[in-house]
Design a protein that fits this description.
By secondary structure, chain A is mainly α. Chain A has 18 helices and no strands. Chain A has helices at residues 3-8, 10-13, 20-25, 29-57, 68-103, 111-130, 158-185, 198-229, 243-260, 263-277, 284-297, 313-325, 327-341, 350-373, 375-381, 385-415, 421-448, 462-492. Chain B is elongated, with a radius of gyration of 29 Å. The chains are: A mainly alpha (529), B alpha+beta (382).
Chain lengths: 529, 382
Amino acid sequence: MSTIVETHDDHGHHGPAKGLTRWLFTTNHKDIGTLYLWFSFLMLFVGGAMAMVIRAELFEPGLQIVQPEFFNQMTTNHGLVMVFGVIMPAFVGLANWMIPMQIGSPDMALPRLNNLSFWLLPMAFTMLVSTLFMDAGGPNFGWTFYAPLSTTYAPDTVTLFIFSVHVLGVSSILGSINIITTILNMRAPGMTLMKMPLFVWSWLITAYLLIAVMPVLAGTVTMMLMDIHFGTSFFNAAGGGDPVLFQHIFWFFGHPEVYIMILPAFGIVSHVIETFSRKPIFGYSSMVYAMTSIAILSFVVWAHHMFTTGMPLAGELFFMYSTMLIAIPTGVKVFNWVATMFKGSISFETPMLFAIAFVALFTIGGFSGLMLAIAPADFQYHDTYFVVAHFHYVLVPGSLFGVIAGVYYWIPKWTGNMYDETLGKLHFWLSFISVNLTFFPMHFVGLAGMPRRYPDYALQFADFNAMVSVGAFIFGFTQLLLLFIVIKAIRTGKKASHEVWEDTKDWGLEWTLESPPPYHTFTVQPEVK
Amino acid sequence: MKSISRITGKFFFTLPFLVPTTVFSEASAYNMPVGVTEVSKEIFDLHMLIMWICLWIGVVVFGIMFWSMWKYRKSSGAKPAKFDDHYWLEIGWTIAATVILIGMAIPSTSVMIKAYDDSKGDINIMVTGYQWKWQYKYLEDGVSFFSSLSTSQEQIDNAIPKGEFYLSEVDEPLVIPINKRIRFLITGNDVIHSWWVPDFAVKQDAVPGFINTAWTNVPKPGIYRGSCTELCGLKHAFMPIVVRAVEQEEYEAWVIEKIAMAEAEKLLTEKVWTKAELIERGQGVYLKNCVACHQTNGQGLPPVFPSLDGSQIVMNNKARNIEILMEGVQGTAMQAFSNQLSEVDMASVITYTRQSWSNGKNGDGEIVVPKDIVDYKNTVNL
């Protein structure tokens, strides 16, 4: 057998291993991407089930289904699972699949590291979710785990929570190193930084954010660990510490974290909108600068989560102004998306529907974000359902719709099969209506005065809470339809062409590959003009 | 396909107009409360201003977007243009966004400066958050008391119909005079709580070990209700705030009455108590302070909140029983109650637990009298 034959015969010699070991030991970016995406999908149902418990309890006033103890565990774990188990892994999964395909490289730069960073995730979440079945109960101090509720007053399982956060952090940092290395070293000849697809740009920025803030999170939980087990007093005033210090450190991680959860969606939506508007993205370079500015600003706005903790006036004003500034680059992005659609030739396939809903509903979340930035008004909004409405608008019809748009957009490329367009549209409309039914009324209950993280509430909030619960159930069950659509596409979908959508050759290197693409993506690097 | 997109277009186009007119009329039950203080009114106006600006930006941006979706839909044969940037347009909208934001920042700054004033009040009240109740201490008048939820557990458990002020009623509201500058000095005893009364636009975190300030000046007598807004554990939703604002004379009379009651309470320590009297009083104290964790039936919620029914300490170890109540148990949710309960209440609640459920017939049956608590305090102080 000659070497020439070997290099040309990808399928015979370089195909995936058989059986379980393919997934355990894989170093292939597509396999790992698939693992990330399925893991995230599974966790979506785990976190979603917790949301269903919360909404069932809140359907009417009084305690019916669960006791406050378990309710607090549900809100905490719902947040942790959705943030660290759904949105972040989904984006990493998309990055794994798409970055090598979009930059014209054969695989990720560090394939073994890639395997490790995925397999750490199931470990961490097994540890976290198992606490729910222990005597002391799972974490019950909110996903923001403010000390001293999460230290002196925490259940014993907090130690397992701390370790699982450590492991998640390691996974994210390894993943980010891999992504940055891949993007900076493995681009096809001719692809300068300012020719990179926006999804790649969004991930380059996101990966830097992750590397910057994940160690801060690890530091925070380590300080908690020390306070709990080794007699330090970082967050204990009785020993000279400060509980508010916890919040400063947490939000120094936490605010960049919320942009980590939205920037890749910006990238995906930009691709979807240009494809289905049949017109190149408007203001490519301002899109890149906007994402970069958002990332840089995210380091100087953290205390807008803490307006009521007793900051000095200068602090309140500084964080109000810096937060308001973020509206400028974010506004620029929205204007650019709209300008891309303007004078295009727009069709409304499922990914485009999700992308349009993303632009509209994310913008609503942006508006409420701007309102929350206004420090004096925040004294009324803070820690009410208005905040819950705000961050769910940016995370569900924002980040999650971004992920779903990406899945519909690229699944024909991944599997070689089209999804069912009729079912896809049905999935969109059910999701769109129910997501608004769920989260829009939350603005009003929040303004009317219902605090967040309440298992029971005063009677004047009953009507809207019932409405929210109904919306949440519809939204939750609608996502089973997505599972069905994905499985149907994989098993029996119509064959998709290389280009999948109309004239996609202009929109990225991934569309020059076969559908499904070869196991090793670009064995010969393409030339970018 | 065509008809669907037509309906969609109309739906999207009308959506932003429907929302503001139906729900956001001022002073609606589903909007931010206007409140009664000068600051709360200014914050409300600021909120409405920012919201209307956002809504109109939304109408313009979404208007252009949905119009483009309609006008340039492929199904009508639209051909895509080729442009992908426009220098002056991009500069223009960046400047426009900046100008709008400056326009928002100016009134926001002035309201913020006004709301932020920690100078001394006519009346200064120390507000301390406990798991799960509030303590109010009037620094000048010497009045001090706890305020906890008065909604019954039966209402919460849906055993009986819920009252009008379900979960927003307390046994003893904070009483303040109108037209006086009231300064709140807010702190926490255990975890972080947050003291919020929407009608005053006062929300301030109660951080253990630190004192935050907030102030208000209420012009109108009335009952104002609020909530704890920082997750503080199990009963976070069950520690509401009720403030009764009254005329100055009524306030003064209330202070005199409270001081007299405190004197009477002190005299009770001297009184000789019978077992039945202690149990009766203890039951009230138990329902107010202990029931959240240890439950009405005394069986708690193990393993976090242990059962008192059948506990060896409660049945047979009076000394340790007193010690736990006075000092709390380190590393658990059991707090020290020595500064929360009077000697009489402390003695009666211990007696109550020692005589109730199965403890009365299985334990040593000893009662605790106020003198035991006084003696304990004296021993500890030696």
